[in-house]
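Page 42, continued from yesterday. The earlier attempt failed because a stray header line got pasted into the input along with the sequence. Redoing it now with the clean sequence only.
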Amino acid sequence: MRIGIDFGTSYSAAAARVGGGGDIVHIFFDGQPQFRTAVYFPTAMPDPGDFALDAAMEAEVRTLVRAFRRDQARTVLAPRSDAQLHADAVRVVRRQWLEQQMRQAEASAARLQDAVFGEAAIDRFLVEGGGHLVQSPKSMLGYQLHPRARLAITGIAHILEHVRLTACQQLGTPVRTATLGRPVRFRSSMGDAGGEQALAILREAAAIAGFDDIDFLEEPAAAALHHHAISRERHRTLVVDVGGGTTDIALAEIGGDAAPRVHAAWGTPLGGSDVDLALSLARCMPLLGRGAGRIPAHHFVEAAMVHDAPRQRDFQRRDFREVESPYGDRLQALQAPGGTTRLARGVEAMKVALSSARRSSHDMADIAPGLRAEATRDDLEHAGRDVFGRLDRLLREVEAGLQAPPDSLLLTGGMSRTPALQALAQARFPTARLVLGDASLGVVAGLAEHAHRA
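This time it went through. Structure tokens are written below.
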């Protein structure tokens, strides 16, 4: 059986259409039709910063230096100093050490039978403090891969295997094929090459997870397929999918008896996680000293970007002991195991609450007694201005290329619950009927439709 998998930046889900004309069946994970895209391994993973030369490594360095000298004597290139040769040898030994550490860690993770997924993964990490938490790995797939990149692939493979095995158990049949959702444009530092890298990593991880065959479908096209399945009349719709990591748009002709047709798709690498970052910097980090002292601003960005492992390591290594009171103590408390993860979780909860409430707050008593961050709907809209601004520019670009406005606007993705985003899209296409799709499960239902047709 082929299933649809929405492997999201923040949350993941799976579904299948069972039988020729059967209903869409959502796969449940701990009683819920989606789970946070996270996996926790109790085994600690290597940190490049832990490298230190021991006696055996020193001997290897000396051997390499002698070999470098011999190679240098046979070339016409400018000679390098002994210090340069020694530094090159240390780099080689360090790389070999890290590769060995990663192989050992990956082997341990691959044998692990008690990996924990979803919200439980974060809860376990916060309780135990050690081990390794992989969360939102999709957000890093289009970037230059740092030494821990192989671990990200291992984490993705475990998550996809968790999806596959849960689907096998619930559906009562082997599951070896799937359609995976993908954004129109991945978050990337390498342009189109980053997108190709992301797809290659997902293919490799899916194979490790036990899938014999997978294909990909752009997420807004999947949302259009789901809307087609429940639409009686033929019409043109513009799908606006604002998820955790990206914002995607598709123009489709759907409904009625004819097959759905996707005409074009657009995307931009901004989404709900960018709003989380802005909200954290605006409403939480000032309580920790942002804007109040001489602490460099990028230290607070490092703390807030919990999905960026290099930035998190940089924050953990900062020395805040000399920072003026009360901020030094608060920043050191934030450096405690799980501190930044706990804060990010609270910020996300504030953001979600502000989609329906005028005010929300997050208790930061784990950092300092009585400390609490407060936010309003206006704060949320201010935090979302970059995402909303980019969406507005993208909608203008789409509008300029249309011969006629769409009949409907279908909004989906977690951020589609935000009133400001709904108003922005409606203002750009005032004659289009506004349809609020299933913000969490609309895409995966469409992926299941596509998987059934494949």
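Notes: The mean pLDDT is 89.
Reminder to self: strip header lines before submitting.
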